[in-house]
Amino acid sequence: MYDENTISNRQDKGQLNPVSNSTVTIAAVGDVMMHDGQIWSGYDSETGLYNYSMFFQDVKDEISSADIAMANLETTLGGKELKFTGYPKFNSPDELADALKDAGFDIIMTSNNHCLDRGEKGVVRTIDVLEQRRLMAVGTSRTAGERDRIVIKEINGVKIAFLAYTYGTNGNPVPKDKPYLVNLIEEDTILKDLTKARQSADAVVVYLHFGQEYQRVASEQQKKLAKMLLEKGADVVIGSHPHVTQPGEWVRVIGPGGEMVERYAAYSLGNFISAQRFPYTDEGVILKITIEKDLQQNRINVKDVDQIPTWVDKFKEDGKMRYVIRLGKKPPLKKISGLKCPPFTLRCNVPFHTLLLPAGRIRPFHPRPPGCNSIWGHSKCPRISDTDTWRYRYNLLSVELP
Ligand SMILES: [Zn+2]
């Protein structure tokens, strides 16, 4: 025989079972860029085909092990007829989307300053190509109806909504009669979307393409906007565009139930892949974040934020440039004493640094000569000829290490 107490005890026990919490892991990366060198790195002149799976070969496990993986596609997939080009107006082969799918990505942020590089046609076709590969485009839309739908992914019973916006489109105007093509950062619009997203999802991730290029710390404006969105109901704000990483932070805000909660703002995840050569632009992070749904209290906890460093290894193989994202911190520059400039810069005769790369390959780095303040680093220093610059960038020396 049992009384009411016994029953309620049993229920309590059941409710305390940790199984009652559901978690979802999200992996987010920064800018997936496609410069000219990268376009050609995947081209096979014998078959006429492109393949970019090599970009992601080392990070594939890390990406695909997350429940949801997202990236910012900082180029368009406008098709061959619109010509494939890198900077300043990007258009890349569709095989980049194949490689992203193969790497384990699910959600592709398309609202960024390059999304109109091939006009409306480019915006529309990019979404088509992603969709054909079962990749979800967020931040640009083909129709007004599409603009108003909220992208939600449900994993382990947790519904997560994704919103994305960009600060601008590099002077390529969004057609006046088709404002739905690109989500711009406009507070009113974001707040409206956020309210709508909260109605049908448990958690909301807001992606912002914002910040100052090459600044390694988030600006006050970035912080203010991110904090405001976290206060208004976003659970995670993820940014990119500066092409370098910016430290993220926990932000304490009042949650939907009136209690204090910890939310996370990742201001810039840096470049995931690019051919950029400015300092730190070849480094990025994979942000891994766990979102927990507490089924007892029906609330969302953001926890376990992990930043896995990555860097872009550029090297020559079979006469071709290769770009591979490596896991871990970029190997430090190591000065090797006794080695002078290689023959093609004999006139300089300054000891050079090398970057030790996997498989014993080395890449020379020249110390900046006194008085050279070029932000491009030594490679654009007037004391080095164009030919030398080219060789610096693309030659891998085989020098015996002492
Ligand atoms: Zn950008």
UniProtKB/TrEMBL annotation:
This is CapA family protein. Belongs to the CapA family. Pfam families: PGA_cap. Residues 25-276 form the Capsule synthesis protein CapA domain.
